[in-house]
Amino acid sequence: MTTRQASSRSDATSGAKPGSSILVIAVRPDDIDHIGHVNNAVYLRWTQDAVVHHWERIADPEAVARYLWVALKHEITYRRPAFLGDAILAHTHLQTAGGAKARFQTMIQRGQEVLAQVDSLWCCIDRDSRRAVRLPRLTLARFTALA
């Protein structure tokens, strides 16, 4: 799912720090599990949406059209539950980038309260061949100038 396809998500990047982006997320009824809070797996979907949003915001249109990102690893620290009706912000920041890989940190928050911290490793792939590719110098420069 991309951020453009997700009706419950919107851009709040104007309030983001340089090198970061913010994705506004509304908790939907199908995000809720049998315990009555957002299911842990939903945080992964939100993280994916947030990282893709970050990529689309920072990379030039040619790079966005040519490359995709696939997750290699996620480490999630859950701190507080989210509930139906909550307004959630996913703050994404590039930590490092080089070669075909990039590390992102996504802080999922309700107001100033951190609900989860997600540290993830991603690999850049060519859209057509589906093979890992080194980030082009210009794209890497755009990423690292903002990190």
UniProtKB/TrEMBL annotation:
InterPro entries on file: 4-hydroxybenzoyl-CoA_TE (IPR050563), HotDog_dom_sf (IPR029069)
Molecular function in Gene Ontology: fatty acyl-CoA hydrolase activity
UniProt entry keywords in alphabetical sequence: Hydrolase
Hydrolase keyword on record: yes
Membrane found in the keyword field: no
CDD domains: 4HBT (cd00586)
Signal sequence, renumbered to the chain: none
Family: Belongs to the 4-hydroxybenzoyl-CoA thioesterase family.
Protein name per the record: Thioesterase superfamily protein
Origin species: Caulobacter segnis (strain ATCC 21756 / DSM 7131 / JCM 7823 / NBRC 15250 / LMG 17158 / TK0059)
